[in-house]
Amino acid sequence: MATLLSAAVARELDEHLRVVCARVGADPARAELIKYTINAVYRVPPFVIRLSGNAEAAERTVANATALAAAGAPTVRLADVGPQPIRSGDWAATVWRNVVTTGRPPEPVDLAGPVRAIHRLRSLPTGLRPWEPIAKARRRIDRADGASWMARWSRDAVGLDLDALLAALRARCDALERALVEVRWQLPPGVVHGDVHTGNLLITAAGPVLCDLDSVGTGPREWDLTPPAHGATRMGRPRAAYRAFADAYGFDILAWTGWPTMRAVRDLQMATSTLGAFDGREQVANQLAYRLRTLLAGDDAAIWSRYT
């Protein structure tokens, strides 16, 4: 299903895309919007261009991508277009080599090889951020505070006043911070991708490669194993597909005592990722409202859908 944008959002993105295309010699008329969840990703031959409203995150992504490429990691590569990111107003763009895929949809088992390769890295020659999922969720919650359009949406779509919704989410953050202190990690900490799921995997003739390098950092390796398991328990993916991943990686996170906490952290992440940043995107707004309603109701059996 194609990403649907309001006319105002589409115009804003088009303006920034034209600026970036002019800098790299690409034709914006050939642009195809691949997806827009937190960042807007376009295929603009011969590149893939990723627009971000967070310039600091774009700077970090460039540093991560450069370090991973130098280490030979199975990740996407930046295009050779000069210094990156490229600024356009408050937005920043990263420009990537277009990856030719086989056309086969990625499966969870395809994640195991790239994840193991990243986990074999002792370090990277860049200032990697520590894993701080709750702090990130708090920043997203703060982003939504006080927005008049968010207040209307919260009442109508979630059934709570915005203050009550954000208070409930902050209380969940508090509880999870306490729970994480008690987790007994099984794997050695180190370099992590930070957002391992099949939506961030490309299948090429030479093998699978990971994209979306914003969240690369240092932390518990169990976190990189959480999204595939979460896909089977929250996103409706087949359990057999997860088990194939766990067997290929060599660790079954569902059998680990820390899994309930990790699932709850992933739930929080996915219920706040677009909070305060979905105006003009009806499909994202509807799915986010469903996630929040079921999360706050304690409905662990509810199946969530990916954003389109």
From TrEMBL:
Residue ranges annotated for the Aminoglycoside phosphotransferase domain, each copy included: 53-263
Gene3D superfamilies in the cross-refs: Transferase(Phosphotransferase) domain 1
Protein name, per record: Aminoglycoside phosphotransferase
Source species taxonomy: Bacteria, Bacillati, Actinomycetota, Actinomycetes, Micromonosporales
Source organism of this protein record: Virgisporangium aurantiacum
